[in-house]
Automatic annotation (TrEMBL):
Transmembrane regions: 39-59, 92-116, 137-153, 165-184
Gene Ontology terms describing biological process: G protein-coupled receptor signaling pathway
Organism: Cyprinodon variegatus (Sheepshead minnow)
Pfam families hit by this protein: 7tm_4
Keyword Ribosomal protein assigned: no
Taxonomy, superkingdom: Eukaryota
Protein name: Olfactory receptor, family 70, subfamily B, member 1
Gene3D superfamilies: Rhodopsin 7-helix transmembrane proteins (1.20.1070.10)
Lineage: Eukaryota, Metazoa, Chordata, Craniata, Vertebrata
InterPro entries, A to Z: GPCR1_Superfamily_Member (IPR052921), GPCR_Rhodpsn_7TM (IPR017452), Olfact_rcpt (IPR000725)
Gene Ontology MF, one: odorant binding
SUPFAM superfamilies assigned to the protein according to its UniProt record, in alphabetical order: Family A G protein-coupled receptor-like
Membrane topology reported for the UniProt record: Multi-pass membrane protein
Keywords on record: Membrane, Transducer, Transmembrane, Transmembrane helix
Domain G-protein coupled receptors family 1 profile positions: 1-182
């Protein structure tokens, strides 16, 4: 989940540079910058997750049933009879930092892209910007709302059944839609689907 957010943040930055500083794109997004961004996309979530695991490992277990479709951190510390106040505080802090920085990055980059598109008279640039950014934004919003819902419902035990459903949807829906959303942007894919549609109509 964390790495998905950081990768989408980097993608938003990449689109911002490509649209707002198109002539300097190659200079800004050089190999060194790409390596640094890629490393940070994995390193930052890894550090946060290691701390989460460390806080869970220290707890004594008095239960064995994981009431979730998969074994995540919140499910693990719920197996303990010890105080999990620190785990909850850190989990909320981690979620706030991750989602806050994620939303902030999207709003900042897309806000500047919108300003450039409105002030630009280049219709071709605006069309390409909309085509490129719309897919990224749709994928981000799907992942954000499905992930946020699953995290929020962990704090409400009475909605455990809804949490299980949203947890499964988080892994199934975004991954399934990614290929569709990005696939329709491909000229070859659109051409192939058009041929199938036309042939079916002619039958």
């Amino acid at each position: 989940i964390s790495t998905s957010h950081t990768v989408l943040m980097i993608m938003a930055f990449d689109r911002y540079v490509a649209i707002c500083y198109s002539l300097r794109y190659s200079a800004i997004m050089n190999n060194s910058m790409v390596m640094k961004l890629s490393l940070s996309a994995w390193a930052v979530p890894l550090i946060f997750v290691v701390v989460l695991i460390g806080l869970s490992v220290r707890l004594n277990r008095c239960r064995t049933l994981v009431s979730n479709p998969y074994c995540d951190n919140a499910s693990l510390f719920k197996l303990s009879c010890d105080s999990v106040v620190i785990n909850n505080i850190y989990g909320l802090f981690y979620t706030a930092v991750l989602l806050g920085s994620s939303v902030g990055c999207i709003l900042l980059t897309y806000g500047k892209i919108v300003v450039v598109c409105f002030t630009s008279k280049n219709k071709s640039l605006n069309r390409k910007a909309f085509k490129t950014c719309s897919t990224h934004l749709v994928v981000y919003l799907i992942m954000f709302f499905s992930g946020f819902t699953a995290i929020a419902l962990h704090r409400f035990p009475q909605y455990s059944e809804y949490r299980k459903i949203t947890s499964l949807l988080f892994f199934v829906v975004p991954g399934s839609l990614n290929s569709i959303i990005y696939g329709v942007q491909s000229k070859e894919v659109r051409s192939f689907l058009s041929k199938i549609f036309i042939s079916n109509r002619n039958k």
